[in-house]
Each structure stands twice: as C-alpha cells, then as structure tokens.
Amino acid sequence: MSIEAAPNGxxxxxxxxxxxxxxxxxxxFYIFFMPDFAxxxxxxxxxxxRRASALPPPAAARCLAGAGAAARDHGIIAGKWPHSxxxxxxxxxxxxxxxxxxxxxxxxxxxxxxxxxxxxADSLENVLAIATADELDGWRDGRGGDFAHFLRLADxxxxxxxxxxxxxxxxxxxxxxADGELFPRSLFSQxxxxxxxxxxxxxxxxxxxxxxxxxxxxxxxxxxxxxxxPAAYS
Length: 234
Hints:
The chain has 234 residues and is mainly alpha-helical. The chain contains 7 helices and 7 strands.
C-alpha cells in the first residue's frame, strides 16, 4: 500500500509473531517429533528415552513451560491466542499499558531462562554467534541441553539424509523493521539465498479451478458458468 508503518506498529506485530514461531518450534520438537525416539528401538542411545518421553514428563512439562510463556506474550499484545483478530496493516488494534509491558518483560525473561537452561545449556548470545556447521559441532561436544543431545542423536542416526526437499524454497520474508527484514524475501536452497523473490512473476492461474473462463474480471465468482460443474468458490 506504499504506507510506512510506525516503529511501534512493527514491534506490535513482530513480537507476537516471534512468540508464535517460538511456541510452534518448541511444540513440534518436544511433542510432535522427539517422543518418537522414546520407543524401545532407540534405547541404545543414552539418555534419549528419558529426555524424549512425552508422558509422563519431562518432555511435555518442558514444552509447556516454554511454549506457554511464548503464547502468553502473544496473547498480551494481540488480545488472545490463537487466532487473534488484532493484527492490522501497520500494527495491532490493541494498546498495552505499563503493567502489561512489565508482564511482557517478566515472561520474556523467564522464557530466555528456559532456553538457556534447558534447550541450549548456554547463553543465547553464544548460540547466535555460531556461524558454520563446524562451529556448531565444536559447540555441541560435551554440552548438556536438549538441543545438543538432539544433534548427537541426529548424527548417530544419519537423520540429515531423510526428508530432504528438492528446493529451491520460497520465502516471503519475516520480521519487518525500519531497515528492512530480518529474513529477506528470497528464493533459497540449502540455507543459501539464490536470488531475491521475484514478486512480479507471481500470478494467479485459475485454469484448473472451477471459475469462469475469463481473465478480464479477476474477481472470484460464485456464478455457475457450466450447469454440469459445481459453483465456484467466492
């Protein structure tokens, strides 16, 4: 729309989106993925069953502690979680008061503590400073924490060869700021950016949809163009 959002508007959308991303990552790791490794087939991998068991805790409790904090961040700024209606172009419709800002700081501090104690067993600054695969290997050797344990498990089971996509992948970018995007819009493959995302080349193709056979009017019609076909989606 060629409208520059206010700095607080960008923060008001970026923070709950980041909280949602963090909660999703933890839920996927602790609840949807790692419990598979609690099965008897992986008993030879020291400590995995204890870490990965979904019921009883500890895995489920660790996930709830971390993802729950992230979800509360989202709820304070965006009004509710999930499916907030507060997001609008340029920010959110909900202002937060001083007390809520203090709650956000407290929740975020507790969440950081969870990541540094349980997930990484290291400061977030040290984790973010890791720039190469070799540095990651050196960092994880002899380290506690669920992430380092998972890296060792992934190596021993050769997980890097499973589920690989064909690429390149497409990203619309994320976390907009005054200086651009933290993650730029791009086509990328194996973490390397191939080229900027060519937005002008993205078009709508309705040739295989139940819509009117006309490109003069781009409006999705609910009119039945052919009595033998179902009505189009509106």
